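go over whats below:
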Amino acid sequence: MTQMQRAWLGVVSADHTRQAIEGGFIQLNHGKRYGVARLHQGDGFAIYSPTEQYREKRPLRAFTALGVIADATPYQAEPMSMGARGVVQPWRRRVEFARVERAALAQVASELALTQQPNWGYQLHRGLVALPVEDFETLWSVMVD
């Protein structure tokens, strides 16, 4: 892993994370542009999955993917059906994902600056939060083969 300037944490269910890894992309907040537009080529990107399945209430609470943003600008994917949201043309970023093992939040929370403040999880509702580079490096050391 090369030295990076910035890192991010995206909040994505594990089933959608698998699709992202297979496709080599990330899309956030139902394909809206504003989240992926904040990312820059070379930024670290971690995914936290609160649940295994989208819209499922049973918690997973694990970090499920790590990668590096691989492109310079967001792109729009082909139109796709998003159920009740209708047909959308989501904005995405290409990501070079590493091969990782999931890390349960309980396993790493005490080592992350992100989780040290009371009510730290509230910010996850935004879908994308800045992640201290040191936290990304900690997750990398725990999760990458």
